[in-house]
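Hi R.,

Here's the chain you asked about this morning:
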Amino acid sequence: MAFERQFKYIAPSIPIQMLYLTHPGQFILSIALFLASLSLPTTAKAFNPVHLEQLRQTGACVGCDLSGAELTNALLSNTDLREANLSGANLTNADLRRAQLTNANLAGASLIYANLTDANLKGSNLTVATLIGANLTGTNLVGAGMSLAKLGNANLIGTNLRQADLTDADLSNASLNLVDLTGANLSNADLTNALLVNVNLSNAIISNGTLLP
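And the predicted structure, written out as tokens:
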């Protein structure tokens, strides 16, 4: 039996905030999504439809071009997306539990409320990505590039952020319990109201540029 991922395709021309406005009680969320989208770089919708179909059928698409793809609510747990180009993709509320995203390009991607529990994003590029409210419990983000990423209200309990670049990242109201930030760069990161309990900050660079022992 052919493996088939379940996700719906929405024409890129339909703004995601308009989709949410069709549901009662979602006005506040639509505004948040709209404001977040204003800070994302403009990317061409240049994903390869053959690659998208491969992902849907097999759950694996190593090195695929899915840049700008519309993957809202996609069920992508346990998928193999190593070195895939997902820059500018919309993965809002996507299920990416245990997904393999090593060295993937997620620059400018929307991962609002996405579930990335136990996913492997080692060496991935999440520059300017939006992960507001995302679940990153136990996620491997070793060496990930996360400068200017938006992680407000994200759950990062037990996340491995060794050597990660979090320069100018927004971590306000994020939960950072049991996080490993060894050697991470937190220069100018916003940690307003962030919860840091049992965090390893050995050799990390904090907001004022100070290198911790």
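Residues 8-44 have pLDDT under 50 and may be disordered.

Let me know if you need anything else.
M.
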